[in-house]
Protein backbone atom coordinates (compact mmCIF):
# COMPACT_ATOMS: atom_id res chain seq x y z
CA UNK A 1 0.00 0.00 0.00
CA UNK A 2 1.40 3.46 -0.87
CA UNK A 3 2.35 5.90 1.88
CA UNK A 4 -0.78 8.00 2.43
CA UNK A 5 0.95 10.49 4.71
CA UNK A 6 2.43 12.48 1.81
CA UNK A 7 -0.44 12.28 -0.68
CA UNK A 8 -3.45 14.48 -1.25
CA UNK A 9 -7.05 13.30 -1.11
CA UNK A 10 -7.50 14.04 -4.79
CA UNK A 11 -4.36 12.17 -5.87
CA UNK A 12 -5.63 9.04 -4.11
CA UNK A 13 -9.04 9.44 -5.74
CA UNK A 14 -7.47 10.03 -9.17
CA UNK A 15 -5.40 6.86 -8.90
CA UNK A 16 -8.50 4.91 -7.90
CA UNK A 17 -10.51 6.47 -10.75
CA UNK A 18 -7.81 5.44 -13.22
CA UNK A 19 -7.92 1.87 -11.95
CA UNK A 20 -11.73 1.63 -11.62
CA UNK A 21 -12.72 3.90 -14.51
CA UNK A 22 -15.89 2.09 -15.59
CA UNK A 23 -17.01 0.97 -12.15
CA UNK A 24 -19.90 2.87 -10.49
CA UNK A 25 -18.51 5.41 -8.06
CA UNK A 26 -21.72 7.18 -7.05
CA UNK A 27 -25.35 6.07 -7.34
CA UNK A 28 -27.63 9.07 -6.93
CA UNK A 29 -31.42 8.92 -7.28
CA UNK A 30 -31.07 5.71 -9.27
CA UNK A 31 -28.44 7.02 -11.71
CA UNK A 32 -24.96 5.51 -11.83
CA UNK A 33 -21.92 7.75 -12.20
CA UNK A 34 -18.71 5.92 -13.09
CA UNK A 35 -15.33 6.81 -11.65
CA UNK A 36 -14.35 8.21 -15.06
CA UNK A 37 -17.44 10.43 -15.10
CA UNK A 38 -17.04 11.67 -11.53
CA UNK A 39 -13.40 12.51 -12.18
CA UNK A 40 -14.34 14.36 -15.39
CA UNK A 41 -16.99 16.39 -13.53
CA UNK A 42 -14.63 17.16 -10.64
CA UNK A 43 -11.94 18.35 -13.07
CA UNK A 44 -14.50 20.53 -14.84
CA UNK A 45 -15.66 22.08 -11.58
CA UNK A 46 -12.05 22.75 -10.57
CA UNK A 47 -11.46 24.48 -13.90
CA UNK A 48 -14.63 26.53 -13.42
CA UNK A 49 -13.51 27.63 -9.94
CA UNK A 50 -10.13 28.60 -11.31
CA UNK A 51 -11.88 30.63 -14.01
CA UNK A 52 -13.80 32.50 -11.32
CA UNK A 53 -10.58 33.40 -9.53
CA UNK A 54 -10.49 30.73 -6.83
CA UNK A 55 -6.93 29.72 -6.03
CA UNK A 56 -5.15 27.11 -3.92
CA UNK A 57 -5.58 27.64 -0.20
CA UNK A 58 -8.81 29.65 -0.48
CA UNK A 59 -11.85 28.46 1.48
CA UNK A 60 -14.97 27.19 -0.32
CA UNK A 61 -18.14 26.50 1.68
CA UNK A 62 -20.40 23.59 0.69
CA UNK A 63 -23.99 24.32 1.74
CA UNK A 64 -25.84 21.60 -0.17
CA UNK A 65 -27.47 18.27 0.74
CA UNK A 66 -26.07 14.83 -0.08
CA UNK A 67 -25.90 14.30 -3.82
CA UNK A 68 -23.65 13.90 -6.83
CA UNK A 69 -23.21 17.69 -6.75
CA UNK A 70 -21.75 17.49 -3.23
CA UNK A 71 -19.24 14.81 -4.25
CA UNK A 72 -18.22 16.65 -7.44
CA UNK A 73 -17.83 19.97 -5.63
CA UNK A 74 -15.84 18.41 -2.76
CA UNK A 75 -13.47 16.65 -5.14
CA UNK A 76 -13.23 19.68 -7.43
CA UNK A 77 -12.16 21.93 -4.59
CA UNK A 78 -9.58 19.32 -3.54
CA UNK A 79 -8.32 19.12 -7.14
CA UNK A 80 -7.69 22.85 -7.11
CA UNK A 81 -5.82 22.68 -3.82
CA UNK A 82 -8.39 24.88 -2.08
CA UNK A 83 -9.92 24.13 1.34
CA UNK A 84 -13.46 22.77 1.70
CA UNK A 85 -15.74 24.07 4.46
CA UNK A 86 -18.78 21.74 4.50
CA UNK A 87 -21.83 22.80 6.54
CA UNK A 88 -25.30 21.40 7.06
CA UNK A 89 -27.86 22.56 4.46
CA UNK A 90 -30.31 23.40 7.24
CA UNK A 91 -28.21 26.21 8.68
CA UNK A 92 -29.78 29.67 8.94
CA UNK A 93 -28.31 32.98 7.69
CA UNK A 94 -27.02 33.52 11.23
CA UNK A 95 -24.90 30.35 11.02
CA UNK A 96 -23.76 31.07 7.45
CA UNK A 97 -22.58 34.53 8.45
CA UNK A 98 -20.63 33.27 11.44
CA UNK A 99 -18.90 30.38 9.65
CA UNK A 100 -18.11 32.40 6.51
CA UNK A 101 -16.41 35.06 8.62
CA UNK A 102 -14.70 32.61 10.97
CA UNK A 103 -13.29 30.48 8.15
CA UNK A 104 -12.53 33.39 5.81
CA UNK A 105 -14.44 31.74 2.96
CA UNK A 106 -14.80 33.73 -0.25
CA UNK A 107 -16.92 31.22 -2.21
CA UNK A 108 -20.06 29.28 -1.30
CA UNK A 109 -21.80 26.46 -3.17
CA UNK A 110 -25.43 26.35 -2.09
CA UNK A 111 -28.69 24.65 -3.00
CA UNK A 112 -31.10 26.81 -4.99
CA UNK A 113 -33.61 26.36 -2.15
CA UNK A 114 -31.11 28.06 0.19
CA UNK A 115 -30.16 30.85 -2.22
CA UNK A 116 -32.29 33.37 -0.31
CA UNK A 117 -30.53 32.55 2.97
CA UNK A 118 -27.15 33.06 1.32
CA UNK A 119 -28.03 36.38 -0.30
CA UNK A 120 -29.37 37.71 2.99
CA UNK A 121 -26.08 36.79 4.69
CA UNK A 122 -23.78 38.15 1.97
CA UNK A 123 -23.57 41.79 3.14
CA UNK A 124 -22.20 40.68 6.54
CA UNK A 125 -19.55 38.35 5.10
CA UNK A 126 -16.48 38.35 2.88
CA UNK A 127 -18.12 35.99 0.38
CA UNK A 128 -17.36 37.13 -3.18
CA UNK A 129 -19.13 34.49 -5.26
CA UNK A 130 -22.15 32.21 -4.96
CA UNK A 131 -22.64 29.00 -6.95
CA UNK A 132 -26.14 27.56 -6.74
CA UNK A 133 -27.23 24.04 -7.61
CA UNK A 134 -30.48 22.17 -8.03
CA UNK A 135 -30.80 18.62 -6.69
CA UNK A 136 -31.45 17.36 -10.25
CA UNK A 137 -28.30 18.92 -11.70
CA UNK A 138 -26.09 16.34 -13.45
CA UNK A 139 -28.89 13.77 -13.70
CA UNK A 140 -29.82 12.49 -17.20
CA UNK A 141 -31.96 14.95 -19.19
CA UNK A 142 -34.96 12.61 -19.29
CA UNK A 143 -34.91 12.23 -15.52
CA UNK A 144 -34.70 15.99 -14.96
CA UNK A 145 -37.60 16.55 -17.38
CA UNK A 146 -39.67 13.91 -15.63
CA UNK A 147 -38.96 15.47 -12.24
CA UNK A 148 -39.90 18.96 -13.37
CA UNK A 149 -42.98 17.74 -15.28
CA UNK A 150 -44.44 16.04 -12.23
CA UNK A 151 -43.19 18.71 -9.83
CA UNK A 152 -41.16 16.33 -7.66
CA UNK A 153 -37.94 18.35 -7.81
CA UNK A 154 -37.83 21.24 -5.31
CA UNK A 155 -36.72 24.48 -6.93
CA UNK A 156 -35.75 27.70 -5.22
CA UNK A 157 -35.76 31.21 -6.60
CA UNK A 158 -32.33 32.20 -7.85
CA UNK A 159 -30.83 35.02 -9.86
CA UNK A 160 -27.68 34.78 -11.94
CA UNK A 161 -25.35 37.75 -11.95
CA UNK A 162 -21.74 38.83 -11.90
CA UNK A 163 -21.19 37.03 -8.58
CA UNK A 164 -23.89 34.35 -8.78
CA UNK A 165 -23.44 31.32 -11.02
CA UNK A 166 -25.42 28.19 -11.85
CA UNK A 167 -23.53 25.01 -10.96
CA UNK A 168 -24.62 23.02 -14.02
CA UNK A 169 -23.67 25.86 -16.40
CA UNK A 170 -20.21 26.15 -14.88
CA UNK A 171 -19.71 22.41 -15.30
CA UNK A 172 -21.00 22.38 -18.88
CA UNK A 173 -18.79 25.28 -19.87
CA UNK A 174 -15.65 23.81 -18.33
CA UNK A 175 -15.67 20.15 -19.38
CA UNK A 176 -12.38 19.43 -21.14
CA UNK A 177 -10.84 22.79 -20.30
CA UNK A 178 -7.13 22.56 -19.50
CA UNK A 179 -6.17 22.75 -15.86
CA UNK A 180 -2.71 22.78 -14.36
CA UNK A 181 -1.36 19.37 -13.42
CA UNK A 182 -2.70 18.23 -10.06
CA UNK A 183 0.01 19.49 -7.79
CA UNK A 184 -2.34 20.15 -4.90
CA UNK A 185 -0.43 20.05 -1.62
CA UNK A 186 -1.17 16.98 0.48
CA UNK A 187 0.37 15.64 3.66
CA UNK A 188 0.05 18.03 6.57
CA UNK A 189 -1.66 20.75 4.49
CA UNK A 190 -5.29 21.47 5.38
CA UNK A 191 -7.86 19.70 3.18
CA UNK A 192 -11.05 20.88 4.89
CA UNK A 193 -12.45 22.60 7.94
CA UNK A 194 -15.30 20.79 9.68
CA UNK A 195 -17.43 22.70 12.15
CA UNK A 196 -18.53 21.00 15.33
CA UNK A 197 -20.73 21.90 18.26
CA UNK A 198 -19.75 21.47 21.88
CA UNK A 199 -19.74 23.61 24.99
CA UNK A 200 -19.44 27.05 23.44
CA UNK A 201 -22.01 29.36 21.90
CA UNK A 202 -20.50 29.18 18.41
CA UNK A 203 -19.45 26.09 16.42
CA UNK A 204 -15.71 25.45 16.35
CA UNK A 205 -13.71 25.00 13.16
CA UNK A 206 -11.60 21.82 13.09
CA UNK A 207 -8.85 21.87 10.44
CA UNK A 208 -8.34 18.39 8.98
CA UNK A 209 -5.14 17.69 7.02
CA UNK A 210 -4.91 15.44 3.98
CA UNK A 211 -2.72 12.99 5.89
CA UNK A 212 -5.09 12.79 8.86
CA UNK A 213 -8.15 12.31 6.66
CA UNK A 214 -6.54 9.64 4.49
CA UNK A 215 -5.20 7.63 7.44
CA UNK A 216 -8.53 7.74 9.30
CA UNK A 217 -10.75 7.17 6.28
CA UNK A 218 -8.68 4.27 4.97
CA UNK A 219 -8.85 2.22 8.14
CA UNK A 220 -12.53 3.01 8.76
CA UNK A 221 -13.66 2.03 5.26
CA UNK A 222 -11.54 -1.15 5.40
CA UNK A 223 -12.88 -2.33 8.77
CA UNK A 224 -15.34 -4.58 6.91
CA UNK A 225 -12.64 -6.15 4.69
CA UNK A 226 -12.93 -9.59 6.36
CA UNK A 227 -16.54 -9.73 5.10
CA UNK A 228 -15.91 -8.56 1.50
CA UNK A 229 -13.22 -6.81 -0.54
CA UNK A 230 -13.27 -2.99 -0.21
CA UNK A 231 -13.54 -2.67 -4.02
CA UNK A 232 -16.71 -4.78 -3.96
CA UNK A 233 -18.34 -2.66 -1.28
CA UNK A 234 -21.57 -0.81 -2.04
CA UNK A 235 -22.29 1.67 0.76
CA UNK A 236 -25.76 2.95 1.59
CA UNK A 237 -24.53 6.28 2.92
CA UNK A 238 -27.35 7.63 5.06
CA UNK A 239 -25.09 9.90 7.12
CA UNK A 240 -24.72 13.51 5.90
CA UNK A 241 -21.52 14.10 3.95
CA UNK A 242 -20.78 17.36 5.77
CA UNK A 243 -20.36 15.24 8.94
CA UNK A 244 -17.20 13.26 9.73
CA UNK A 245 -19.27 10.06 10.04
CA UNK A 246 -20.56 10.39 6.49
CA UNK A 247 -17.11 11.22 5.19
CA UNK A 248 -14.92 8.56 6.77
CA UNK A 249 -17.44 5.72 6.68
CA UNK A 250 -19.23 6.49 3.38
CA UNK A 251 -17.43 8.97 1.13
CA UNK A 252 -14.14 7.16 1.83
CA UNK A 253 -15.26 4.26 -0.35
CA UNK A 254 -14.38 6.45 -3.37
CA UNK A 255 -10.74 6.25 -2.29
CA UNK A 256 -10.63 2.44 -2.40
CA UNK A 257 -12.83 1.70 -5.44
CA UNK A 258 -16.24 0.91 -3.95
CA UNK A 259 -19.64 2.44 -4.75
CA UNK A 260 -21.56 5.03 -2.75
CA UNK A 261 -25.37 5.31 -2.75
CA UNK A 262 -26.62 8.71 -1.61
CA UNK A 263 -29.94 10.54 -1.31
CA UNK A 264 -30.61 14.26 -0.79
CA UNK A 265 -32.62 13.39 2.33
CA UNK A 266 -33.60 10.26 4.23
CA UNK A 267 -36.53 8.45 2.65
CA UNK A 268 -36.76 4.92 4.02
CA UNK A 269 -38.72 3.40 1.13
CA UNK A 270 -36.26 4.89 -1.36
CA UNK A 271 -33.34 3.67 0.74
CA UNK A 272 -34.79 0.16 0.97
CA UNK A 273 -35.37 0.11 -2.77
CA UNK A 274 -31.78 1.23 -3.45
CA UNK A 275 -30.36 -1.41 -1.10
CA UNK A 276 -32.43 -4.07 -2.83
CA UNK A 277 -31.77 -2.86 -6.38
CA UNK A 278 -28.03 -2.18 -6.10
CA UNK A 279 -27.27 -4.93 -3.57
CA UNK A 280 -25.75 -2.67 -0.96
CA UNK A 281 -23.38 -4.45 1.39
CA UNK A 282 -22.81 -1.68 3.95
CA UNK A 283 -25.17 0.70 5.71
CA UNK A 284 -24.16 3.68 7.81
CA UNK A 285 -26.44 5.42 10.29
CA UNK A 286 -27.13 6.70 13.78
CA UNK A 287 -29.20 4.74 16.35
CA UNK A 288 -32.33 6.78 15.60
CA UNK A 289 -32.21 5.66 11.95
CA UNK A 290 -31.93 1.98 12.83
CA UNK A 291 -34.91 2.30 15.15
CA UNK A 292 -36.93 3.98 12.38
CA UNK A 293 -36.05 1.12 10.03
CA UNK A 294 -37.21 -1.57 12.46
CA UNK A 295 -40.46 0.28 13.09
CA UNK A 296 -41.20 0.95 9.40
CA UNK A 297 -44.52 -0.60 8.39
CA UNK A 298 -43.31 -1.71 4.92
CA UNK A 299 -39.93 -3.12 5.94
CA UNK A 300 -40.92 -6.70 5.10
CA UNK A 301 -41.78 -5.76 1.51
CA UNK A 302 -38.09 -5.30 0.69
CA UNK A 303 -35.14 -7.66 0.38
CA UNK A 304 -32.29 -6.27 2.47
CA UNK A 305 -30.37 -9.54 2.65
CA UNK A 306 -27.39 -8.09 0.74
CA UNK A 307 -26.42 -6.02 3.80
CA UNK A 308 -23.50 -7.62 5.59
CA UNK A 309 -22.02 -4.72 7.55
CA UNK A 310 -24.19 -2.22 9.42
CA UNK A 311 -22.39 0.50 11.36
CA UNK A 312 -23.77 2.87 13.98
CA UNK A 313 -22.04 6.05 15.10
CA UNK A 314 -22.90 9.43 16.54
CA UNK A 315 -24.33 8.07 19.79
CA UNK A 316 -24.48 4.96 21.95
CA UNK A 317 -26.62 2.18 20.47
CA UNK A 318 -29.33 1.05 22.94
CA UNK A 319 -28.95 -2.63 23.84
CA UNK A 320 -32.54 -3.50 23.00
CA UNK A 321 -32.20 -1.92 19.55
CA UNK A 322 -29.10 -3.98 18.79
CA UNK A 323 -30.84 -7.14 19.97
CA UNK A 324 -33.90 -6.53 17.81
CA UNK A 325 -31.74 -5.89 14.74
CA UNK A 326 -29.77 -9.09 15.32
CA UNK A 327 -33.00 -11.10 15.62
CA UNK A 328 -34.47 -9.53 12.48
CA UNK A 329 -31.48 -9.67 10.12
CA UNK A 330 -29.18 -12.28 11.62
CA UNK A 331 -26.16 -10.00 11.97
CA UNK A 332 -25.29 -7.25 14.47
CA UNK A 333 -25.09 -3.50 14.21
CA UNK A 334 -21.46 -2.77 14.93
CA UNK A 335 -20.66 0.36 16.86
CA UNK A 336 -17.85 2.84 16.79
CA UNK A 337 -16.77 5.91 18.69
CA UNK A 338 -15.21 9.05 17.31
CA UNK A 339 -15.31 12.82 17.11
CA UNK A 340 -14.73 15.53 14.54
CA UNK A 341 -11.49 16.46 16.30
CA UNK A 342 -10.20 12.88 15.87
CA UNK A 343 -11.34 12.69 12.22
CA UNK A 344 -13.92 10.06 13.08
CA UNK A 345 -13.20 6.65 14.48
CA UNK A 346 -11.19 6.28 17.65
CA UNK A 347 -12.63 2.84 18.32
CA UNK A 348 -14.57 0.46 16.08
CA UNK A 349 -16.03 -2.99 16.67
CA UNK A 350 -14.05 -5.62 14.74
CA UNK A 351 -16.06 -7.92 12.46
CA UNK A 352 -13.99 -11.06 13.11
CA UNK A 353 -15.38 -11.64 16.61
CA UNK A 354 -18.39 -11.10 18.84
CA UNK A 355 -18.21 -7.80 20.68
CA UNK A 356 -19.28 -7.42 24.32
CA UNK A 357 -22.68 -5.80 24.88
CA UNK A 358 -22.50 -1.99 25.05
CA UNK A 359 -18.93 -1.94 23.72
CA UNK A 360 -18.11 0.83 21.22
CA UNK A 361 -15.18 -1.18 19.90
CA UNK A 362 -11.41 -1.36 20.17
CA UNK A 363 -8.94 1.43 19.46
CA UNK A 364 -8.03 1.65 15.76
CA UNK A 365 -4.35 1.45 14.73
CA UNK A 366 -3.94 5.14 13.86
CA UNK A 367 -5.04 6.37 17.30
CA UNK A 368 -3.63 6.21 20.82
CA UNK A 369 -5.78 6.68 23.91
CA UNK A 370 -5.47 7.36 27.61
CA UNK A 371 -8.17 7.12 30.28
CA UNK A 372 -7.49 9.71 32.96
CA UNK A 373 -8.97 11.39 35.99
CA UNK A 374 -10.49 14.57 34.46
CA UNK A 375 -9.28 16.65 37.40
CA UNK A 376 -5.56 15.88 37.39
CA UNK A 377 -5.12 13.86 34.15
CA UNK A 378 -3.63 10.88 35.98
CA UNK A 379 -4.26 7.56 34.25
CA UNK A 380 -6.86 5.25 35.76
CA UNK A 381 -6.66 1.47 36.05
CA UNK A 382 -8.16 -1.19 33.81
CA UNK A 383 -11.93 -1.26 34.15
CA UNK A 384 -12.05 2.09 35.95
CA UNK A 385 -13.91 5.06 34.42
CA UNK A 386 -11.87 7.99 33.17
CA UNK A 387 -11.96 10.79 30.61
CA UNK A 388 -10.86 9.57 27.18
CA UNK A 389 -7.85 11.35 25.69
CA UNK A 390 -6.88 10.72 22.05
CA UNK A 391 -3.68 11.30 20.09
CA UNK A 392 -2.59 10.46 16.55
CA UNK A 393 0.33 10.96 14.19
CA UNK A 394 -1.38 13.75 12.22
CA UNK A 395 -3.47 15.04 15.10
CA UNK A 396 -5.55 18.22 15.02
CA UNK A 397 -3.75 20.54 17.43
CA UNK A 398 -6.03 23.58 17.60
CA UNK A 399 -9.45 24.95 16.73
CA UNK A 400 -9.64 27.72 14.17
CA UNK A 401 -9.48 31.16 15.84
CA UNK A 402 -10.38 29.73 19.26
CA UNK A 403 -7.35 29.96 21.62
CA UNK A 404 -9.36 29.56 24.83
CA UNK A 405 -11.30 26.54 23.58
CA UNK A 406 -8.06 25.10 22.19
CA UNK A 407 -6.34 25.41 25.56
CA UNK A 408 -9.25 23.64 27.26
CA UNK A 409 -9.55 20.80 24.73
CA UNK A 410 -5.95 20.00 23.75
CA UNK A 411 -3.21 19.13 26.24
CA UNK A 412 0.46 18.19 25.99
CA UNK A 413 1.49 14.94 27.68
CA UNK A 414 4.80 13.16 27.13
CA UNK A 415 5.58 15.42 24.19
CA UNK A 416 2.34 14.60 22.32
CA UNK A 417 -0.86 16.53 21.70
CA UNK A 418 -3.91 14.84 23.20
CA UNK A 419 -7.54 15.77 22.56
CA UNK A 420 -9.78 15.76 25.61
CA UNK A 421 -13.02 14.17 24.44
CA UNK A 422 -14.90 15.11 27.64
CA UNK A 423 -16.45 11.64 27.53
CA UNK A 424 -16.03 9.23 30.42
CA UNK A 425 -15.13 5.74 29.20
CA UNK A 426 -13.81 2.50 30.63
CA UNK A 427 -11.68 -0.22 29.03
CA UNK A 428 -11.63 -3.91 29.87
CA UNK A 429 -8.59 -6.20 29.85
CA UNK A 430 -9.24 -7.15 26.19
CA UNK A 431 -9.15 -3.51 25.05
CA UNK A 432 -12.89 -3.02 24.55
CA UNK A 433 -14.08 0.55 25.22
CA UNK A 434 -17.37 1.29 26.98
CA UNK A 435 -19.14 4.65 27.16
CA UNK A 436 -19.99 5.72 30.73
CA UNK A 437 -20.98 9.41 30.81
CA UNK A 438 -20.28 12.90 29.52
CA UNK A 439 -18.32 15.45 31.53
CA UNK A 440 -19.51 18.51 29.61
CA UNK A 441 -22.80 20.09 28.77
CA UNK A 442 -23.17 18.72 25.27
CA UNK A 443 -26.48 17.28 24.09
CA UNK A 444 -26.53 14.36 21.64
CA UNK A 445 -29.66 14.45 19.44
CA UNK A 446 -29.92 12.17 16.38
CA UNK A 447 -26.12 12.03 16.22
CA UNK A 448 -25.67 15.81 16.38
CA UNK A 449 -23.59 17.41 19.13
CA UNK A 450 -25.49 20.44 20.38
CA UNK A 451 -24.05 23.10 22.65
CA UNK A 452 -26.32 23.71 25.63
CA UNK A 453 -24.81 27.17 26.04
CA UNK A 454 -25.63 28.09 22.42
CA UNK A 455 -29.33 27.31 22.99
CA UNK A 456 -29.22 29.11 26.34
CA UNK A 457 -27.64 32.16 24.74
CA UNK A 458 -30.37 32.33 22.10
CA UNK A 459 -33.13 32.09 24.71
CA UNK A 460 -31.36 34.62 26.91
CA UNK A 461 -31.57 37.20 24.12
CA UNK A 462 -35.40 37.15 24.30
CA UNK A 463 -36.48 40.35 26.08
CA UNK A 464 -38.75 38.42 28.46
CA UNK A 465 -36.14 35.91 29.66
CA UNK A 466 -34.11 36.50 32.82
CA UNK A 467 -32.32 33.13 33.10
CA UNK A 468 -32.27 29.76 31.39
CA UNK A 469 -30.76 26.30 31.67
CA UNK A 470 -30.72 23.76 28.82
CA UNK A 471 -30.09 20.03 29.26
CA UNK A 472 -30.48 16.81 27.32
CA UNK A 473 -33.34 14.54 28.37
CA UNK A 474 -32.69 10.82 27.59
CA UNK A 475 -34.90 9.52 24.78
CA UNK A 476 -34.80 5.96 23.43
CA UNK A 477 -35.55 7.04 19.85
CA UNK A 478 -33.19 9.97 19.33
CA UNK A 479 -30.61 9.73 22.13
CA UNK A 480 -31.55 12.95 23.91
CA UNK A 481 -34.17 15.65 23.48
CA UNK A 482 -33.51 19.29 24.27
CA UNK A 483 -35.25 20.72 27.30
CA UNK A 484 -35.00 24.34 28.42
CA UNK A 485 -35.77 25.60 31.92
CA UNK A 486 -36.65 29.28 31.77
CA UNK A 487 -37.04 32.02 34.39
CA UNK A 488 -39.02 35.00 33.10
CA UNK A 489 -38.59 38.60 34.23
CA UNK A 490 -40.95 39.57 37.03
CA UNK A 491 -43.03 42.05 35.06
CA UNK A 492 -43.57 39.72 32.08
CA UNK A 493 -46.91 38.04 31.40
CA UNK A 494 -48.42 36.09 28.53
CA UNK A 495 -45.20 34.46 27.25
CA UNK A 496 -45.66 30.80 26.37
CA UNK A 497 -43.28 27.99 25.50
CA UNK A 498 -44.47 28.25 21.91
CA UNK A 499 -43.36 31.90 21.81
CA UNK A 500 -39.85 30.97 22.94
CA UNK A 501 -39.58 28.07 20.49
CA UNK A 502 -40.67 30.40 17.69
CA UNK A 503 -37.96 32.84 18.82
CA UNK A 504 -35.33 30.10 18.61
CA UNK A 505 -36.36 29.27 15.04
CA UNK A 506 -35.14 32.72 13.94
CA UNK A 507 -31.54 31.87 14.84
CA UNK A 508 -30.98 28.19 15.52
CA UNK A 509 -30.78 25.33 13.05
CA UNK A 510 -33.86 23.07 13.31
CA UNK A 511 -32.08 20.28 15.17
CA UNK A 512 -31.00 22.73 17.91
CA UNK A 513 -34.49 24.01 18.76
CA UNK A 514 -35.76 22.96 22.22
CA UNK A 515 -38.40 20.26 22.32
CA UNK A 516 -39.64 21.19 25.78
CA UNK A 517 -39.86 24.46 27.73
CA UNK A 518 -40.43 24.42 31.47
CA UNK A 519 -40.88 27.67 33.39
CA UNK A 520 -39.26 28.04 36.82
CA UNK A 521 -39.12 30.70 39.51
CA UNK A 522 -35.38 30.10 39.96
CA UNK A 523 -32.53 27.86 38.80
CA UNK A 524 -29.98 26.02 40.98
CA UNK A 525 -26.67 27.85 41.29
CA UNK A 526 -23.44 27.38 43.23
CA UNK A 527 -22.21 29.75 45.94
CA UNK A 528 -20.30 31.68 43.32
CA UNK A 529 -23.33 31.95 41.05
CA UNK A 530 -22.44 29.20 38.58
CA UNK A 531 -25.39 27.42 36.99
CA UNK A 532 -25.61 23.81 38.24
CA UNK A 533 -26.82 21.87 35.19
CA UNK A 534 -25.90 18.61 36.91
CA UNK A 535 -28.67 19.15 39.48
CA UNK A 536 -31.20 19.71 36.68
CA UNK A 537 -30.05 16.55 34.88
CA UNK A 538 -30.24 14.53 38.09
CA UNK A 539 -33.76 15.83 38.64
CA UNK A 540 -34.75 14.67 35.15
CA UNK A 541 -33.28 11.21 35.86
CA UNK A 542 -35.29 10.94 39.06
CA UNK A 543 -38.46 11.88 37.19
CA UNK A 544 -37.86 9.11 34.68
CA UNK A 545 -37.32 6.53 37.41
CA UNK A 546 -40.64 7.33 39.11
Number of domains: 2
CATH hierarchy: architecture of the largest domain: 3-Layer(aba) Sandwich
CATH class of the largest domain: Alpha Beta
The CATH topology of the largest domain: Rossmann fold
CATH superfamily of the largest domain: ANL, N-terminal domain
Relative helix content: 25-40%
- Give the percentage of residues in beta strands: 25-35%
Low-confidence stretches: none
Rg, Cα atoms, Å:
23 Å
Structural class: alpha/beta
Major β-sheet, in short?
14 strands, mixed
What value does the average pLDDT take? 91
Overall, the morphology is globular
Note the total helix count: 16
Count all strands and give the number: 26
> How many angstroms separate the termini?
57 Å
Question: Would you kindly provide a written description of the structure presented here, covering whatever features stand out?
Answer:
Helix 2 packs across helix 3 (68-80). The model has no long low-confidence stretch (mean pLDDT 91). Strands 1, 2, 10, 11, 12, 13, 14, 15, 16, 17, 18, 19, 20 and 21 form a 14-stranded mixed β-sheet that branches. The chain has a five-stranded parallel β-sheet with strand order 4-3-5-6-7. It has 16 helices and 26 strands. By secondary structure, it is of the alpha/beta class. The longest helix is centred in the first third of the chain and has 17 residues, at 35-51. The radius of gyration is 23 Å and the shape is globular.
Amino acid sequence: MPDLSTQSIYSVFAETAERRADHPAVIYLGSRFSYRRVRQLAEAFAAALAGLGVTAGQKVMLYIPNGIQWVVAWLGVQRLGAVVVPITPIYTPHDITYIANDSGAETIVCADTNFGYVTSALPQTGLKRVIFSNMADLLPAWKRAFGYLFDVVPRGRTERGANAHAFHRLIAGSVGQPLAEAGAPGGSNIAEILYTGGTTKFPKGVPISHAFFLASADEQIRISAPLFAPEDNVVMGNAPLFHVLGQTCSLATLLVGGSLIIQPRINLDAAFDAIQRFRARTMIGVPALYRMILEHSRLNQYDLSSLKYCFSGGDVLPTDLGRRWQEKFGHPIRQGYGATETCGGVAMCPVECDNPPKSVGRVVPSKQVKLVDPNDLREVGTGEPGELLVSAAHMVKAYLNKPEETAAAFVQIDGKTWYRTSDIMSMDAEGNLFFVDRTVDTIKHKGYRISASEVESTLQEHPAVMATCVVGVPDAKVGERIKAYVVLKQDVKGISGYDLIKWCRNTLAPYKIPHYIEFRDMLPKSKVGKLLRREIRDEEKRRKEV
